[in-house]
Design goal:
Four copies of one chain form a homotetramer. By secondary structure, chain A is an alpha/beta fold. The first copy, chain A, has helices at 5-10, 13-20, 28-35, 43-56, 59-67, 75-78, 84-92, 100-117, 130-140, 145-165, 244-250, and strands at 3-4, 168-169, 178-181, 184-186, 191-192, 197-204, 207-216, 228-231, 236-243, 263-270, 276-278, 281-284, 287-291. The first copy, chain A, has eleven helices and 13 strands. A four-stranded mixed beta sheet of chain A has the order 5-4-12-13, with no helix packed on it. A four-stranded antiparallel beta sheet of chain A has the order 7-6-9-10. A three-stranded mixed beta sheet of chain A has the order 8-3-11, with no helix packed on it. In chain A, α2 runs antiparallel to α3 and α3 crosses α4 (43-56). The A-B interface holds A 132, 135, 139, 235-237, 239, 256-265, 267-272, 277, 286-292 and B 132, 135, 139, 235-237, 239, 256-265, 267-272, 277, 286-292.
């Protein structure tokens, strides 16, 4: 259920803490502190005030707060002991469906990280694929303590911005969503390619790809909905596979049993969770091109 | 050891049959018949004469000849009971390394084919990948007997043309070889992309890809040797993977942790075993194109 | 001043003929006949009814009607003796600004055409460039009389459809407009190219090009308005010239005094007056591509 | 008539000076000084020795030498008073065929330059188009005297390197030639485009283009000879015009009276007189691309 900023500005302090107390993991004191600073003109102002409260807290309070976060793919997750938000966030990145070796790798990284920094590894998993989480994990293990505490707080900013986005409506909501879209142009015939099947995959560094879905191009050579939209993009590597050989066969273009182009894969990386990645395909039976468009 | 056409024209009939008796599987009578038609002006003439002898033979002789061929991935192959040529040919297409389900599929197809046509399935395996052999197998099972006998004889023409090519030197040798080549142009900098790693794979309809090799582009953006050359191409589907992200990083182009383009796959089909497939990549960090070139 | 279909359906017969009598050149009888068939549900129905009246007229009436049209770039035009519609239409295609040799060519074609067919050459000039009119003229001179009378009536359908489009508002207006648009993508940087100057020309078969205008791309690499819109496209050949060298210089890309790419011309033909021609440019300092997009 | 380096090393001092005395304009003393330094192992060594002699000469001698050069498109050229080499060089850049306004512009620049620097403007015209000469002229007029003397000596190095190249054969000849080539690929059919007419133009900043020639692509989509080869490229701007519409019509591709692509212009700049500019066209009836290839 979504609340409006007006409602939040108007409600009692207790109701405010009830409504937003779980935005910061196990830290209702953040909402409590913010309640006194109302009214907020924008959602972004409210979020900024909450983050300022965390940054202004004593080192000890901050550490207790950071320690209150769960491990990724850790024991708490396996035992069903996470908060509802954390459960959903970890599942979204596939961390609830790891193979034993993958689980072991997370376990090893969690242990190493906690030994080094005294806190669990915190990352905004809704902005990452599993492979990207592992890359972050390994890179951040090489940070020093100060840099790493700053990194953890930045990620908490991203996590809570997303949690607020799903909880509060009102002016000044920051953009948290990205978009992946495509467009298929048949440059053999000089018009949009209609009816082309596109399979969409997330690739993994260490295992088989994940099929995210399939779609068919419409009369304008586009898909009726973006491939991903209305949510942050997960940083990672993707592949679109266009069934272009079947398209040209339907259009009556003669082709060999084994056509030169049949299924065309376009592989691309997403680095900006809030970015727009437009990845078109321009194809003939003998050539194709792609580019990051707009 | 290669013989010249002059030597073959000059030698005794017995020596000629010894030299070429195994070109047609278990059928030295083909060479024997051709010996009397010497001298041959070209290798192609000699081959044509041998094929004419097969075509002129009685239906009974032809059937006995066709039946003399081994099953693909059959019991004889497993037991080491093939001729040396057949052993090498079947191994080249990977038919000696089948999984149990793949072996079972061949067994089932062999049985169905033999029941229907009374002869083993004959195909010039040196011109095919395993996937392509299976596609041929299934397609030809739908032929009628006459069409299928013609198909088998055509394949024998291709098999023996290749065996002759490896045995005889002389004028008029038909071209039996194809070529796959590539070229990487860095259209960000306007020059050939040097030092780009390229991995080269054969894809399979029903299983994991086979890595055929890796290479690095030279100063002209090409590979020192073609990816495939001096042999027939195997009809099938291939994928080149260009490590273009690493190239741009080496050239100092700024990139995100997860660059838009890192490994670029180009997937293409080969339908002409004797064709030249030039498959270049033109790339920037944000776009690429490919085409069948020349 | 635009009238609504409702108004036209409701007004007196005389007012109707006054309002629409000049749609068909010197032939108020067409409007008069249509007045009796009111009310019309759509503008297209009204137009169809008027055209049916012309087609149903006697051969003699038709000929008189056709003969009532003016020559293109003829004596009447020079003397200011055209109807207001014809004057504007001929000026729009530049027929009022011909050089002496061009005028002579039209005169010669008009004479040949009238001698052959007994009527003036009729073409919907608002859908053509001067070069395209001349091509039509020469092609249609080779028609026989029946084919040419049909061609003339088809053109009258196009002329009057456009005149109605400017006179009447209401449901069922046929689409008479086309669009030319562009988009500049900088595939060196992976984003839209902003601030690129584009000059836009109409090319002529027999003389210097005509500059139609210049524009600058916006932040999305597009132009704020289409290059041509809200009117029929003139069939003919066009050239866009993109000042892409200056763009890369502004972006800090090093370039030679004489860069490889400076002004990039894209030349394309328009065959469909009501079509959408989207002609994007994808460019790096060393490469570019274009295509008919959507 | 070409002499070998061996012959030049072996001949008498007088013969040497006779043979090479005109390489440096009106300065046989340069050859005379070099004669004493024989034998030369390479042509480049001989050239270097001659240039060193000029650089080692007194300021007064250098100025006399520089003043011995003719104006570009100046009175001496009009009166036929140039050396044979200068006459040919200036004609090659079209300086003998100037319009009156163009001649006036050169006259004005010559006057300004001589007043400022006390020497004629010296540039290796064989490496430039007329437009490029004028650009150099205007840019160098802004130099100070020392920079300009250095520029003049550099150009003399380029001029005499080319004169030697046409006079002497032997080891160590520097590369003085560039190349412009093209390749037309029909990506609609997936093969080289044969029989495509290509017109080749030099563009001018201040006047009509110069047609350099026309050619037709061969079966490999290339031209039998490079568009320019075996000579330095003239720095400047060029345009290739490919008659691609006619190609697709010949291949039976249906097209409108006014096809989307008919004559495709590729405009590119040449900045390196000794460079290789490979400018291919990849085209369908609805799209094309080009790039600087290799």
């Amino acid at each position: 259920m979504t609340l409006t900023l007006d409602q939040l500005n108007a409600m009692s302090r207790d109701d405010f803490v009830t409504a937003l107390g779980s935005i910061f993991e196990h830290a209702p004191w953040v909402a409590d502190g913010a309640a006194a600073r109302r009214p907020f003109a924008t959602v972004a102002d409210m979020h900024r005030t909450m983050l300022d409260a965390v940054e202004a807290a004593s080192a000890e309070t901050q550490m207790r707060f950071l320690r209150g976060h769960p491990d990724l793919a850790g024991k708490a997750a396996r035992d069903g002991a996470l908060t509802a938000d954390s459960t959903a966030e970890q599942a979204g990145a596939g961390l609830d469906r790891l193979s034993e070796p993958q689980y072991a790798r997370f376990h090893q990284l969690n242990t190493a990280y906690t030994q080094r920094f005294g806190i669990p590894f915190i990352v905004c998993v809704r902005r990452h694929t599993r492979s990207s989480i592992l890359r972050q994990f390994e890179r951040r293990l090489t940070n020093d303590a100060a840099a790493e505490r700053a990194a953890a707080l930045r990620e908490i900013g991203l996590i809570t911005r997303l949690r607020l986005d799903g909880t509060v409506d009102g002016p000044g909501k920051p953009n948290v969503n990205g978009r992946i879209s495509t467009h298929v142009l048949d440059t053999h015939m000089g018009r949009p390619a209609e009816g082309v099947r596109i399979d969409f995959f997330e690739l993994q560094d260490d295992g088989p790809e994940t099929r995210l879905g399939s779609t068919i191009t419409n009369a304008d050579g586009r898909t009726d909905k973006p491939l991903v939209g209305d949510q942050p993009l997960r940083i990672g590597v993707y592949e679109l596979r266009f069934h272009i050989g079947a398209h040209f066969t339907r259009r009556g273009v003669p082709a060999a049993d084994t056509p030169f182009l049949d299924i065309v894969p376009l592989r691309f990386g997403v680095a900006e969770a809030e970015g727009h990645y437009h990845v078109p395909l321009l194809a003939t039976p003998w050539s194709y091109s792609t580019y990051r468009g707009s």
